[in-house]
Amino acid sequence: MAGGIGSRFWPLSKDNCPKQFLDILGTGKSFIRATFERFLPVVPAKNFVVVTNAAYKALVLEHLPELRENQVLCEPMRRNTAPCIAYATYHILSQCHEASIAVTPADHLVTNEREFQRVIGEGLDFVEHKREALMTIGIKPSRPETGYGYIEVDEVRDGIVPVKSFKEKPDLETAKKFLAAGRYFWNSGIFLWSSDAIMNAFKSHLPDMVNLFDEGKPLFGTDKEQDFINRQFERCENISIDYGVMERSHSRYTVAADFGWSDIGTWGSLYTHAAHDGAGNAATGHAVLVDTTGSVVNIEKGYEAIVQGMDHCLVALRDHSLLVCRLDDEQQIKHWVEKL
Amino acid sequence: MAGGIGSRFWPLSKDNCPKQFLDILGTGKSFIRATFERFLPVVPAKNFVVVTNAAYKALVLEHLPELRENQVLCEPMRRNTAPCIAYATYHILSQCHEASIAVTPADHLVTNEREFQRVIGEGLDFVEHKREALMTIGIKPSRPETGYGYIEVDEVRDGIVPVKSFKEKPDLETAKKFLAAGRYFWNSGIFLWSSDAIMNAFKSHLPDMVNLFDEGKPLFGTDKEQDFINRQFERCENISIDYGVMERSHSRYTVAADFGWSDIGTWGSLYTHAAHDGAGNAATGHAVLVDTTGSVVNIEKGYEAIVQGMDHCLVALRDHSLLVCRLDDEQQIKHWVEKL
Fold first, then answer.
1. Complex ipTM value
2. A276 at the B interface (CB within 8 A)?
3. Helices (DSSP H) in A73-194: which residue ranges?
4. Disulfide: which of A32, A191, B230, B238 matches A20 by Cβ 3.0-4.6 Å?
5. Minimum-distance CB partner of A306 among B305, B320, B340
6. If you average pLDDT over residues A240-262, what whole number do you get?
7. What end-to-end distance do the CA atoms of chain B give, in Å?
8. A324:B310 CB<8 A
9. Given its phi and psi angles, is residue B125 left (phi above 0), alpha (psi -120 to 50 degrees) or beta?
């Protein structure tokens, strides 16, 4: 899934180059490239399917030149994750009769790739054999994070366990209770299932969406697929896979993984994961920081900056756009960009 | 005089485009262009002589296309105002036997041009008839400014009066006394004199410099002038006209002018003279200011900016360089730029 526009990272991510195509952490790879390479030991390149906005098709192929053009599926508009996954599933089933499928956002950070591959491999084995299972990768929480949804389990065991419930983003007090209880994991948004399991779940919980896609079933995998999607996709309910399927299902599993995961969803999370100087600043690019503490400074290549007298601020310059703000207020970025 | 590099206005002014060539206030004209037009009713275009660094000759001719190339004199290196003025005087005397001369920086602001022209016209009449007089334009002070030198007079009268003494930049307490006394004016750095008066003053007070220039006297105004200057100029004493001549002279005059003058020497002074929004911000360029007060935001054309949560700060983006700092600390800009 690589269709997001990542407005929370403005000006680094913008409509014309959203977060998944950026190397925000300076690792030398964009998020989508890193995601591809992270899955490559488990999934052969020919089996990847990228769903993105039509506007980003060329960018996807640029970042993943190993893919053929027909491995990049184009949404004509954003309709959240359930229609995205339904589209991909119909496309995959046009290529093969059954499949074990991993669904993943293309803009997350994983620092322990070997452990990631182990967890994904085990999970795919599990869903291949337990063919009704819908599995979500849980992440062992390291702090009372209020920015993520949580997965509740009945009892903590090693390995794959049933899900008791899904919890929306909690307030801080609740998040602290979750952390203390030890039975709550962060919802990574990474899913594993067999094609049978997800198709049956769509049929049970989102039958209208199934009817919409069934109308064009013979067209998937042909040169008429895109036309059909362009016509039908708008009619899909705008709903996430979490609300639309996972919360309504009774065969849900998770595993408490620990592979250095972050969705890097905010400048603050970037700050958490980036290297800091002695004054607690995370700076990238050609910048001199003077009397500045606890700040994120992100300067585009080819530019130079002096940042002085700032505390817990964000200074980001990219693509002819500059953001100077307090890190504490970054959740407002979207509104400021609208004003601009 | 248009040879300065204006490092205090980084990143707007830089070595490759110093302050005199910028339209910092957004008036539609660079400072040098505005200075030229301000003098044009008093001095015909063919009588202008611009002294600048060799690196800026093309820029001068671009901003003042009315000038011929030989009206732009090039210093091979910076040597302060006394050698600059001596060079120009020798050049002028190669073109005519006597002249009334106005010497002016090319990067000041004047808001009442008509009053300016009246004052300059009267002053030039004065020095034409009182041929030994060295005249400095004084400015009636409006605040206890510590960033300017002061001119002391014995008694305050309308019109042109003798100078008692020149005072260096005072501390705040002294500046307050100057303001209260009413006998102290800001030193604008604009001078008026006859060619006889300034040549005699150079001979009396800077005889070594006169000897240096005399060696090439027949070469001024010829195609050998530049070669001669390139060889000799380095040997000139690095001294200002104020220290080298004015403070040592006994025939000094001034006038207390009031034509809306500022040397716009700092971001703070720019803030003083620019238009403010309701929150006391002076912003130019495409910028959205949120929860920001008393700040200067200066964004280059073609860029956009969001500035949030700042108070008494400076955000300036120009020529691939960004400065974010506290306005109170702007006197340190030069040091930060050196670090960068």
1. 0.71
2. no
3. 81-95, 113-129, 172-181
4. A32
5. B340
6. 94
7. 29
8. yes
9. alpha
Nearest-CA neighbor of A262 among A27, A77, A49, A50? A27
Token pair belonging to B21 = 């060539």
Looking at chain B, the whole-number percentage of residues with pLDDT higher than 90 is: 81
Residue B172's pLDDT is what?
93
- Residue A212, chain B, CB below 8 Å: the answer is no
For the ranges A260-269, B128-137, B208-217, the lowest mean pLDDT is seen at A260-269
Q: Does B301 touch chain A (CB under 8 A)?
A: no
What is the rounded average pLDDT of the residues B318-332? 92
Mean pLDDT on B148-157: 93
For A297, name the nearest residue in chain B, comparing CA atoms only. B324
CB atoms within 10 A of CB A327: 18
Which of B321, B322, B329 is most worth mutating to test chain A (most A CB atoms within 10 A of its CB)? B322
**Structure-block tokens of residue A41:** 């030991």
Lookup result for tokens 């080298």: B244
Chain B residues touching A324 at Cβ < 8 A? 305-308, 310, 313, 315, 324
DSSP string, B229-292: HHHHGGGS----HHHHTGGG-S-EEEEEE-S-EE---SHHHHHHHS---TTS-EEESEEEEES-
Could you tell me the pLDDT band of residue A270, with boundaries at 50, 70 and 90? confident
Sequence-distant (≥ 6) Cβ neighbours of residue A308 within 8 angstroms: A289, A290, A291, A292, B323, B324, B325, B326, B329, B332, B336
Q: What is the pTM of this model?
A: 0.73
Inter-helix orientation angle A81-95/A207-214, to 10°: 40
Q: Higher model confidence: residue B25 or residue B328? A: B328
Q: What is the token pair recorded at B94?
A: 């190669």
Report the distance separating Cα A310 and Cα A226, nearest Å.
50
CA distances from B255 to A283, B125, B243 (A): 53, 13, 20
